[in-house]
């Protein structure tokens, strides 16, 4: 009597191949077929047909018009989502930014932090639109908020010591508006990346200054998490970008750019938390780091009654 159930080995082949986004080929199907029982044969053949249909899946959004693509096969799981993993990997960033936003509003932090958390959410949503469509217009909805977000970080980092308070936000606003217009008219992939890296580098010295002047051990730990997620996320980005040829010819795709999204979602959250702590110290709000459900750090403050 033929066994129609899936063996442990069949589930192993299925989970590895499906979750790691391998391409099903005739050669693979013929090679793995002898290792399956009857149930495994039907199941594997069904997956094979599914992937063959996916390979011929049409694009709802039309031809790719963005200036860059990432190392993920397009339109594998849906005709509406070009890069599936790169799209859904922005969800953690949205959720973390929402948690930060609720905390900022609930404790009545300055509006700059409300805007900062909202900008994190806008950036993640723009990134989802870009990776789902791979269209040039949606690419701007990802890259332009990236620059605006860094301008917000520059304002929060440097504004406490800026003597002419009205000039900094005015300059940064005009700078951001000018960039948005230029970026909508001119396609400069390498130029954008260099520009974004420069903005990030401008933030690091000030973050380090805040770190060395902070005595609270828990706050320092949050700053270290910020640095660690930035480092690991950057490695994932570089690996996906520079090793795409090797990844494409290898047995599976680790989805380095999707991992970059996840790490940068946590990176933004840790940066915001650390900056909120430092700003609360400057305002004399007696901040301390506590943990949501014993895991996720956030800032709790106690304002003087006069404020």
TrEMBL record:
Highest taxon of the lineage: Eukaryota
Key words of the record: Calcium, Hydrolase, Membrane, Metal-binding, Transmembrane, Transmembrane helix, Zinc
InterPro entries: ACER, ACER_plant
Cellular component terms per the entry's GO annotation: membrane
Chief location bin: membrane
Membrane topology field: Multi-pass membrane protein
GO MF assignments: hydrolase activity, acting on carbon-nitrogen (but not peptide) bonds, in linear amides; metal ion binding
Segments traversing the membrane: 28-50, 84-102, 114-134, 171-188, 225-243, 258-278
Chain residues that bind Ca(2+): 70, 72, 74, 83
Segment forming the signal sequence: none
Protein residues bound to Zn(2+): 131, 257, 261
Pfam families, alphabetized: Ceramidase
Family stated for the protein in its record: Belongs to the alkaline ceramidase family.
Localization per record: Membrane
Protein name: Alkaline phytoceramidase
Cofactor entry: Zn(2+)
Gene Ontology biological process terms in this record: autophagy; ceramide metabolic process; defense response to other organism; response to salt stress
